[in-house]
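Subject: for your reference before the review

Hello V.,

The reviewers asked for a structural picture of the protein, and I figured it would be easier to keep everything in one thread rather than splitting it across files. Below is the amino acid sequence we used in the manuscript, unchanged from the supplementary table.
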Amino acid sequence: MVNPQGVFYEAFSDLVSLRTALHASNSETAESCLSQVLNLLSTPTDSTLAVLDQYIPNTHPDLHSKFKTLVETSKANASTQEGLVRLYESFLVQSRIKQILDESCGVAAADDIFKGYIQALQLDNPDSSHTEVMNAIWDLFGKRCDEKTVGKLKTLFAEEEVALDIGLDDETLVDVKIILDDDILYGEVLNTLELHQSSNLPWNEVVGMIEQKVVNQKPECWGELNQVLSVWREMQAIEFLEQAHHIFEDEALYEEFRAALLAEPFLTPEEVFAKIKFGKTVQQPVPNEMEKLVKKLNRLSINRGKF
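And here is what came back from the structure prediction:
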């Protein structure tokens, strides 16, 4: 009987080997090729293995047989296949976790901890709750890692939450981290950003909370950090407007909405229309003629992640 947890760890190890081989073959195209491989494996078809051969360097023919075994194993068990897909989709994040463990705990200990982490993820159990999984993960890390390592892992998890929930990109996250140059404060800022989604706090309120934290601890950083967050938010607003354009039947209203949102990118669609109609973002019912439009815009913002 196949041990699913063993399969998941072997799949991760094979992908690490493939990534190393791709970089040795051509470092400029390695990550692009890896992305293609992960996409292929995440949506397996009868031609997956044939196409996969194009990406496996000739210097590592053994990898073909390993991935063939993985594909065949996944076909034989639906829950294993679903778990492998989850692993493929999150491979880059899992790699960063393994890297932190390697650097902090040594490779031998890191391998053992990472095997426990893979098991805690319950990749083959779609019914496991997020709370259950996270409790198991932090219980493991708390027992096997020192405080500094746990802090690094918590920061990584917070970065992923912020990226997934509000769309903050890697480049902006790097800029924020460099500006703050303080791991603890950086973690506090990430946790505050997450409140925009988890607690449904308005963006300007979240930024105000961040400002208070930063000004109290490193006031010299606030101006530059505020600029980075403002530029990111403006880019989000532009992307949102591009996707929302087709919703508007009245081009003049769209242009008015666009100008108002770009002037204050932290406003919600309701607040933008209130400003257009009443001249300020007062708590007023949305005008009847705009109600359906606001609902469509809100649906779009939810589908994109919270705007």
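For the response letter, the relevant points are probably these. The chain is about 75% helix and 0% strand. The radius of gyration is 23 Å.

Happy to draft the paragraph if you're swamped.

O.
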